[in-house]
From TrEMBL:
Keyword Translocase: no
Name of the protein in question: Phosphoglycerate mutase-like protein
GO CC annotation: fungal-type cell wall
Keywords, comma-separated and alphabetical: Disulfide bond, Glycoprotein, Hydrolase, Signal
Amino acid sequence: MPSSAPSLATIILISAVAVALLALQWNYNAQCASPSAPPDAETTHSGYFDYECAGKPHHSSWSSWWHPQRKTWSGVESSHSHGRGAGAVTKDWNILYHLGGNGPWVEKVVDIVEGGIAVPEGCEVEQVHMMARHAERYPTVRVAKRIQMLVERMKQSGIPFTGDLTFVNDWELFWSDDSQIEQLTATGPFSGTLGSFTTGVRLRTRYAHLLTRAFSLPSKLKFWASDSPRVIDTARYFGTGFFGLDWANTTRLEIISEHSSLGANTLTPGDTCLAYVEDEEEGHDKGYTMLDRYRATYLGAIRIRLLKQNPEIEFTDDEIYAMQEMCGFETTVRGSSHWCDVFTQDEFRSFEYARDLLHYYRAGPGTKYGAVMGWLWLNATTNLLLEGQRAGPLFFSFVHDGDIAPMITALDIINDEEHLPITHIPANRKWRKSQVSPMGGRTIFELLSCKSSDGTTDPRKYVRININDGITAIPSCDSGPGRSCPLEEFAARTKRKGEEVGDFREKCGLGEDAADRITFLRQ
């Protein structure tokens, strides 16, 4: 059964701050230097929002998001904090793009179609499908334990920290109750609750014309969430923003179990593909193996620097990695984090790539199970696209990042020519976790109906892919308006992929009595 809708008081509060957040659209390419600065100057900014670019919507000042634990600690300085730490925003650097999915949502800016998200001239959107990751959250139990152990060790050491870690002397952990672990964050401009609601409003703005048809269906419009509290809450807040306060009365949120017994009829195939779970070499654990191998190439230099500043304490690889993780997680709670400035930009590029490797090899193109798991949702969605308006106009699915990576893999849309190496960072790589599936990340399939150029034939159908507000062309299938993919070619491509990856039950070591496809994804 769906969870109850948020209280009216909660919605009023969210609505009040959502207006500000809508204007805070974080466009990496649109950042600009101060008008008074020379053209070649490297302009730095101490906070994310304390400067504006000409032509951007008005937004509230950064100080309006004041948080009791987000403050400038007196006397705290680091060797990187004078406009050179990784947390400093400049014309050419935005830390949010280098958190490897551990931080706030960001737009996709790599390998996108020029022209923005506007619908191509002569076309209209007839049907929308979305697979979205839950919004910004506190760390998972595993990561939270790593962070807690580090913080406890530092606090109990009695050491007066200096250098890049001076701020720790007055710093407090960014959660006070362990019940918050793994749940959506609810404070600051990057809170998960606000982000979910805002995403709903943002998509309602684009697809409001589909709502009338959606509400005219003979039964309540359905949308779906995997059975995890943070995923369900994301769907609830999204529903409020997209459908309205009475969404629980006008729509039906279907909760899909994450139990391993569901076979292919699931939103979370990583839990039901038993071979993937059990295969230590090529399955789920492969990502962590590749992560550990790469981490060893860059963390040693950081350890030496921190040890030089604080000779009384030496940190392990896990502890230094936890410091980098805290940069993103604390930012989603308090709006910024001193942990970001402990490291240089190059050190965060390494952290970013470490997380790229983790997800690439855990559930993406780097594991042999990725495509066969992701094809399930892709195939179900393709069938609905072929049905067109008869199937219904809106299909929203909420999941985890480990479920988006397989779908992206099956779609063959973010392809690197070779598997990602663990010896160096390929500068021109396409697979970047922060842009594939950040917290709140979403991949949207739009069914376009486009008039013929001479107006003498019936409109043609095309599929356009929007990944985190970056229109992304499908390789070898981009001859349509705005580099969209003709529907018949898209369907043929999906069919070929299914033949290539094989039967889910066979590949995953399941019995013939297990479900072989998704059946719940229908209006």
